[in-house]
Write a structure and sequence with these properties.
6 helices; 57% helix; 14% strand; Mce/MlaD; Paraquat-inducible protein B
Length: 320
């Protein structure tokens, strides 16, 4: 039978080894002791659609934990609604005990949390942790006092606004640089061309004075000539008026003779129309006369042809 002292020694050794093993596990963070679970909270000010208990939490694509619970809180001061999302880190990736630095150091270095789409089919989202020092850390110490808080990253709308502001500022800087360069070139051009321009302006001003004096003299001369012309026209109009009054009687007589001549012309035209009428007696007599003349012409032509062929007819006459 073994001795009681030996059993006691073996039991003490086993307990010592177990205690050392538990201590090592506890130091490395692989032992889930009560109260040692690493938790953090992210306070969202926008809806957390698609995020649920158990949703994965990734740090640059590496799973480091999951969503433990989601609550809703209302700020009694401004009555704004906040959605605290509690994160439970895996022991192997717990900040300060696993392969990550302590959480305050990560937050100081720019650790931010964003919601990303995890499944397009189910619409489930996940929490992505990443370092983004450019995004200001907005904490809520009045709402969260018992757990460390990871600041929320920029929403899609905030990122779009930042991008638009950045683009606008870059365009504004580019436009200002271009404007300053244009002003500089303009100043150089003006500095080069200003002396010649001033000389040209001075010469133009001198020529303009001479031209103004010449134009003024020409206007005065034209005004004098116009006055002379107007006086001559006045005298001509007066003379013509006097001559018209003297020849008024002659003009009236001429108008009367013209009217009489027009009446006679109308009568002559009426006679001509009656003469040219196909049914008038004079036209019929004239047609008969023309017919007789034509027949006489035909007879004379026949006689001339006979005389031309037989000239003795003029001496002996035609045989009966």
């Amino acid at each position: 039978m073994p001795m009681p002292g030996r059993q006691t020694l073996i039991g003490a050794v086993v307990l010592g080894v177990a205690a050392v093993g538990l201590g090592v596990l506890a130091v490395k963070g692989n032992l889930p002791l009560p109260g040692r679970s690493s938790e953090a909270v992210v306070v969202f000010e926008s809806p957390t659609n698609g995020l649920d208990i158990g949703s994965p939490v990734n740090f640059r694509g590496v799973p480091v934990g999951a969503v433990e619970r989601i609550t809703v809180k209302v700020d009694p001061v401004d009555h704004h609604t906040y959605m605290p999302v509690y994160i439970l880190f895996d022991p192997a990736h717990a900040p300060g005990r696993g392969d990550l630095p302590p959480l305050p150091q990560l937050v100081a270095n720019g650790l931010r949390a964003d919601m990303m789409l995890h499944s397009l089919v189910t619409g489930q989202t996940e929490l992505d942790l990443d370092l983004d020092p450019g995004t200001p850390a907005r904490l809520h110490p009045d709402l969260m006092t018992d757990l460390p808080e990871i600041p929320m990253g920029q929403t899609a709308l905030q990122q779009l606004e930042a991008m638009m502001v950045s683009t606008s500022m870059q365009g504004l800087r580019h436009d200002l640089a271009a404007a300053l360069a244009s002003v500089h070139r303009l100043a150089i051009d003006m500095n080069d061309t200003m002396p010649g321009m001033m000389t040209s302006i001075h010469d133009t001003s001198a020529h303009s004075d001479v031209a103004v004096r010449q134009i003024r003299a020409a206007v005065i001369d034209a005004q004098n000539r116009a006055n002379v012309t107007i006086n001559k026209l006045d005298r001509l109009i007066a003379t013509n008026t006097h001559q018209f009054e003297g020849r008024r009687a002659e003009l009236l007589a001429l108008i009367a003779n013209t009217r009489q001549t027009m009446a006679q012309s109308r009568e002559t035209l009426a006679s001509l129309r009656a003469l040219l009428d196909p049914q008038s007696r004079d036209r019929l007599n004239l047609d008969d006369m023309m017919r007789d003349i034509m027949e006489a012409g035909y007879g004379l032509r026949g006689f001339a042809n006979e005389v031309e062929s037989n000239p003795q007819l003029l001496l002996m006459g035609r045989n009966q």
